[in-house]
Amino acid sequence: MTLSPAPSAATAAVSAVSTRVPTVRPATSADDAFIEDLQAIAFGPGRFAKTAYRIRERFRIDPSMSLIAEVDGVACGSVWMTPISIGGINGWMLGPLATHPNFRKLGAGKLLAREVTKRALARGDGQFVMLVGDRDYYCPLGWEPTTLGNIEFPGPVDPTRVLLFAEDKSLAATLHGPIAAWQQG
Ligand SMILES: CC(C)(COP(=O)(O)OP(=O)(O)OC[C@H]1O[C@@H](n2cnc3c(N)ncnc32)[C@H](O)[C@@H]1OP(=O)(O)O)[C@@H](O)C(=O)NCCC(=O)NCCS
């Protein structure tokens, strides 16, 4: 693993970035090295100690839900989804979400969050997308604060950062229980 930017991102001219429009596509195994480098750049070595990392270790991401953001065909962002259940209700944990520093403030992060959530809920087999993140970033996109302490994590987490997106607007307040494995049919 290297801590330097992914070659594709590093070669992009920063001065030309501000006019570019991000798009998204499904991730493939060819994106694995880019994603690993991006997460190292965005979160540093402390990412392995995070509670969300423990959840992903336990329940595994769904690679079919992973998306890549591109600008002019250059990969610049990534998002993952982990199938989980809380209180007997299936849904997803979103994260990590990251955009390469050379491509920030172009809308890639919000596009990834919106698009992966739209695709997840369109499947019809899960009812929410939960994440741990900044209210200022996610609440304008439709995420809502949850009732403090209702969702139980397998480690420390700031409960004010536990946010939920669901079509059922009562769910953010009522969902409660430990984070468990996705429940099959
Ligand atoms: C957070 C992150 C994904 C945003 O990516 P991005 O592609 O730049 O996001 P967008 O272009 O869609 O949105 C940028 C806007 O959000 C704002 N923003 C970025 N991070 C923010 C945060 N944590 N809280 C509030 N606003 C934030 C930016 O200032 C910018 O505002 P502007 O449009 O008024 O200039 C990116 O900064 C990143 O990878 N950070 C490190 C990893 C991280 O913190 N991930 C999120 C974990 S919850």
Radius of gyration: 16 Å
What CATH calls the topology is Aminopeptidase
Say how many strands there are: 9
Instruction: Estimate nothing, just give the exact number of structural domains.
Output: 1
Which ligands occur here? coenzyme A
Pick out the low-confidence regions.
1-13
Percentage beta strand: 25-35%
Spell out the helices and strands N to C: HEHHEEEHEHEEEHE
**Tell me about the biggest sheet?**
9 strands, mixed
CATH architecture: 3-Layer(aba) Sandwich
Give the termini separation.
39 Å
Global geometry:
globular
Q: Which structural class do the helices and strands define?
A: alpha+beta
Report helical residue fraction: 25-40%
How is the secondary structure organized here?
Elements: H1 7-10, E1 22-26, H2 32-43, H3 51-59, E2 67-71, E3 74-86, E4 89-99, H4 108-122, E5 128-132, H5 135-138, E6 144-145, E7 151-152, E8 162-166, H6 171-174, E9 177-181
Parallel strand pairs: 4-5, 7-9
Antiparallel strand pairs: 1-2, 2-3, 3-4, 3-9, 5-8, 6-8
The site of coenzyme A has 17 residues, from helix 2, strand 4, helix 4 and helix 5.
Structure report:
- The protein is α+β, with helices and mostly antiparallel strands.
- It has a single domain, classed as Aminopeptidase (3-Layer(aba) Sandwich).
- Helices cover 26% and strands 29% of the residues.
- The protein is built from six helices and nine strands.
- Strands 1, 2, 3, 4, 5, 6, 7, 8 and 9 form a nine-stranded mixed sheet that branches.
- It is globular, with a radius of gyration of 16 Å.
- It binds coenzyme A (COA).
- Coenzyme A binds at residues 42-43, 77, 97-99, 104-110, 133-134, 136-137.
